[in-house]
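Notes taken during the Thursday session

The instructor put the following on the board and asked us to keep it in front of us for the whole hour. The protein is Nitric oxide reductase NorD protein. We were told not to look anything up and to reason only from what is written here. First, the residues (608 in total):
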Amino acid sequence: MEEWVGSVWHKYITKKASTDFDDAKVTFSQVSKSAGMIFRALGGSPAKRIEAAAPRDYLVRRSFLQKVSGSHHQLSLAWQDKTSLRLPESIAVFPTKSLNKDLYLWLAALAAHSEENFQHWAKDNQERVQNILQAYPSLNKRYFAMLDALLLLRPSISTLPKEHQPLEKAVIQALKKPGSVSEFPMTNYAPQAIYLWLYPSAKVQMAPPVDNNKNHDEKESVENKQQSDAARKKTERIQDPQTRDGMMIFRLENLFSWSEFSKMNRAEDDTEDDDAQRVAEDLDKITLSQQQDQKSAKLKVDLDLPCAAEDDIPLGPGIKLPEWDYKSQRLKADRCLLQPMLPKNSFAQKLPITLSATAKKIRSQFQQLQSVKQWYKAQPQGEELDISAWLDFHIQSKQGPAPEKGLYRSFKSNHRDLSCLLLADISMSTDAHIDNTNRVIDVIQSSMLLFGEALEAVGDDFAMYGFSSVKRHHVRFTMLKNFSEKYTDDVRGRIQALQPGFYTRMGAAIRQATKVLSIQKNTQKLLLILTDGKPNDIDHYEGRFGIEDTHQAILEAKRLGLRPFCITIDQQADEYLPYLFGSDGFTVILNPTQLPTKLPQLYHQLTS
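Then, after some discussion, the predicted structure tokens were revealed:
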């Protein structure tokens, strides 16, 4: 009974203390794509992610009901850092959905014209608002509509303590006339949240981790390994408290609490916890403790690479390649080592029976595109007289002056002068199942086999390679067919011997593919990239670093006259592929099982 009364009271008092308009709430997931388009269209970094951010601590003067309910310690605010723009999980500030949605879009536009760092939060926001309103006059109407609604929600200046009134007056003046306020009085509390402005980064400065004498690349942490709409959690790092001695104080209500120390030392424990994500989503704050206990009984095994006897066959000592460092904005020479390889245990194989009917149909279609000779009519000179053109000329000359035109037929060859290199992602993610019977790698193998059948039928020069990686010193470049080889059962056997593994260092693979394709003497050169996800690796090659390096590799290929085109089955590809390949440089296959038949069709469209 007491628990029921307490829950009813909690719901009642929390609702009374709330200032949100729940009926007009707009969530981040509803506007994430629109906000991303606005952000990038107005000049925001194409490599930045647009993500939801959890509420953050905000020291503001609270009302009596808010104190009683214990609410409003945290508020949803917008901010950005070098890697992403963080917008609130939901906005219910205004009484109408249209205004709440406009607030999302306004914040995205403001962030596109803002730096991550603030010299003075209020002065900088004024300047940025003023700049964007001058640059885009059409935003003035929306801004002042939101401002009018926001001012109605702010407390009356006369109701505030005298020491807080000067700051509130300055804030209102700055909102009404951006750039007109140069001094903001100091108070013990922050002003009521100004939702039309961006806030400084909410990142907590982490203490440096204990040095474990590991490779420098392994020390570089990754902010986010999975893209999602879930909000970012506030984090803090503390030293592991050694409090085993002394008085023990035990409170029963802490027995079922999760908000204590989360032991996440993956150097010692690499087990999977199915409930870890659910627990993390329920926590407001995740506390990490750096604990390095020595376990003398543990056996450390490096499972990153197979032993030489079980691995694919390396070809040569490897090729050194550069890599783009977006932080220093320069190409670092000899940064990566690419290792050409041949699939192990591959032998000559026929085309699988399951693909025979489809291959026969595709071959017949592509044979019609072969280099054939055609008659060109009404030519000024040629091998023989064009009877139809001569009759037209004869009849018109009887009736009056006839226009001069060609009277001959010319026999000319229609030659397809192009080469294509197909680069396929064979990383560990391709081992995932699409349905009960097919994996991604199975679909990729079928696609490459049918692609080979199609290009052999049309007679175009082509090559096929696979790629994966384990850090920058081991980028695997699997040779399936080079330009000098014919498409034989040996090539079919290599494709069917492919095994998924490792990671996706796309930039180095594209640079090597560019080298191979650029030396071909054809006038048209097409670089097709087949992948199921974005660039990534277990060192620093994650997030923006991998995106920027791949972007530079694509630009290098274009400067050499190549046409890169990406084919992906990643449903979130719209968030990063337009930056990498351009709006018309990629396509997304919604149903992965259709990839084998779609790939030859796409090639025909790109080369016709």
